[in-house]
Amino acid sequence: MSAIATETTKAAESTRTVHFRIKRCDGPGKPSRWEVFDVPVPAHANVISCLQWIAANPTTADGKATTPVVWESSCLEEVCGACTMVINGKVRQSCSCLMDEYAPNDGDTITLEPMSKFPVIRDLWVDRSRMFDALKRVRAWVPIDGTYSLGPGPMEGPKESETRYKLSECMTCGCCLEACPQYHLETDEAAWATSFIGAAPISQARLFNEHETGAVLKADRLEALMGPGGINDCGNAQNCVQVCPKEIPLTESIATIGRAATFEAFRRFFQSR
Amino acid sequence: MAEQQGFMERHHFLLRRLHSLSGIVPIGVFLIVHLTTNASVIWGAANGRAAPYAADAAGRGVATFQHEVNFINNLPLLLLIEIFGLWLPIAFHVILGIVYAMTGSKNTQTYAYTGNKRYLLQRLSGYVGVLFIFYHVASLRWGWTFLVPNGTEWSHYFAASTLAAALKGEAGMWTTPGVIVAIFYFIGVSLLVYHFANGLWTAAITWGITVSEAAQKRWGYVCTAVGVVLMGTAWTALGGFLFAVDYDQARAVEEQIFIEHHGEEGLQKFMDNPVDEQAAATIHEAEPGDG
């Protein structure tokens, strides 16, 4: 009993105050504003646990009552990508963002912003449906639906499996797009088809091109990626691979699709009817 | 929707890939040839065949450079080579390059990775490079002498001396505008060499030649080596014209070579009307055996 009490006292003692500067927005198209919250941060806290405290205590540092800050999160273990936001200017998942690392001292400030390449729904919550649209554009699936059984799938070597496993770890979080100088916010859905599609869907196209059954849609995927906004709009800044939380070899995927597109172009010119 | 697409959209892939290719062939190849030719003003010192024209290294360099220039001017179909091998590809690369660069943005402050800085510099070097090429061609080739320090007009027949004068000032003496022009040349040519070397690196990714990160790294070393050697060549050439060429001596060597090709009379005619270079060419045609 006394041991627990001591622990509790210690935790209370190690609590420090961190200033949270948060870029807020009440809804789509509404203007943004900054609000500061002074959050008592215990040891081992992460950004999400601090956001939970703010949700329970929606009062700004200068004592004004405000609405709880809205954010999106789900898995809390850097697997779903939902809680991606811009922290201290750089994109990352907020669940894996540890306060002891980002704001180790009493009085430190941490800045939270929504991703800038997606329309804001509210506060830190953005609409990433353009990424889903991109996955549909590159047909990021294995076509097995039909009226009869296709039987067992093809065998796959361990090496290919290993390569594709890494690619399959993409959680469509949007980090690679946020950091890409060629990827832009498109509020008009009509522009999605011609504005640069970004690294994640290109890598997914490679993932399914390299699947034995998925490869039947290879020409369709390349068709989508060889047009405006496709593979050629990459500027090779290679920020994507630097910021990818899953360390997916995105630049390798881009070059792989670039090579496939080269061969496809030659095939079309010299071979197709 | 597909019918409503414009020319750029319909031929997106082809235009993008031609843009990439044109930067290497013919523009990159031309850059290598051009810089190597210009650097002959220095490496020509080692050219024994230039010895009859001058006793010292600087004179041999001038003579070698003049021979290179004459060789280029005697190429068959030169005008066609220029139009289809240079002017059109460069115009194509520049116009599309600007269109494509406009689709980019700058975020090097937040994401200060080497690759991102390389990306930014590729675009900046493109913009500055276009200005430099425009100045270079307009002032030396199109004869827009109002852009040249002291209004020197560059001549194919007195290549080294007039170039030194066009860079530094009249008769190869340093003037203040000359210093500015020389610095602009240094910056312009350095950025263009970077643009080529980095473009060589990214083109390999674009075409899918270097796929793995390791391959991209290896090819990066090759491109760096190409860039370093070419940068050295460019600086050698520029340094040669700025510091090694003595105007009067170069002029004497070039006159000697001119007389060899066109005779004393040809030189006299040319000196009487130096602006009309076409006249000198006519002399060359009319009196091939003379001199």
Helix content of chain B: over 70%
Distance between the termini of chain B: 69 Å
Helices and strands of chain B, in order, run as: HHHHHHHHHHH
Radius of gyration of chain A: 23 Å
Structural class of chain A: alpha+beta
In total, the number of domains of chain A comes to 2
CATH topology of the largest domain in chain A: Fumarate Reductase Iron-sulfur Protein, Chain B, domain 2
What is the terminal-to-terminal distance of chain A?
82 Å
Under the CATH scheme, which architecture of the largest domain in chain A would be assigned? Orthogonal Bundle
Q: What would you call the shape of chain B?
A: elongated
| Strand arrangement in the largest pleated sheet of chain A | 2-1-5-3-4
Secondary-structure class of chain B: mainly alpha
**Number of DSSP E strands of chain A:** 7
| Gross morphology of chain A | elongated
